[in-house]
Amino acid sequence: MCVQGLFFLTVLSGLAASAVLQVSGMRIYTPGVLEAVNGTDVRLKCTFQSSHPINADAVTISWSFRPLIPGPEESVFHYQQRPYLPTDGSFRKRVVWAGDIMGRDASITIRQVKFTYNGTYTCQVKNPPDVHGTVGTIKLRVVATASFSELLLLALGIGGGIAAVVVLLIIIVSCRRCKRRRQRQLEENEEAPRKDRKDPTVW
Description:
- It is found in: Membrane.
- The protein is of the alpha+beta class and 203 residues long.
- The chain folds into two domains: 24-145, Immunoglobulins (Immunoglobulin-like), CATH 2.60.40.10; 146-191.
- The protein contains two helices and eleven strands.
- It has helices spanning 2-23, 148-196, and strands spanning 27-29, 33-37, 42-44, 47-49, 60-67, 74-80, 83-84, 95-97, 108-110, 119-126, 136-143.
- The longest helix has 49 residues, at 148-196.
- The N and C termini lie far apart (128 Å).
């Protein structure tokens, strides 16, 4: 009985430990796939959740890049108390810190993307003692021109904005007309009794 009880307790403790490991740990969220037009800026969005309170002085963020063609992995960006931009390599003077540690945002912006930037970008965040967990990845596709879906969305956005402005102008003009009509009615109502009054000197 003692051996069975000990075995049962061991199994329970193992299950509890695995549950704790699943609950704890760093969780990172990225869009997965992005498309950017050659020569434009693109924001690589990366947000995170930690099972421990965020310590801005201890959080570290690392971005790396692996090209589509076979080649070594390249460091893109590092953050530890402050952003460290690449001083050499293909991303020199191309990366901008676009995140907010306390806002759980580890995003960066790459300026004027080139076709050589096609590949997979990896975002890793550590918030000690929370240093284990998922790693976020983004597959960036740099294209010569925007795809039809993006152009359609852009057209819909512009069209929607113009339509909203037109509707607003119509509402404003209609309100002004109604106001003028009411003012005219009030003036006419005030003048009518005056006309109906007789001159007391006339018999």
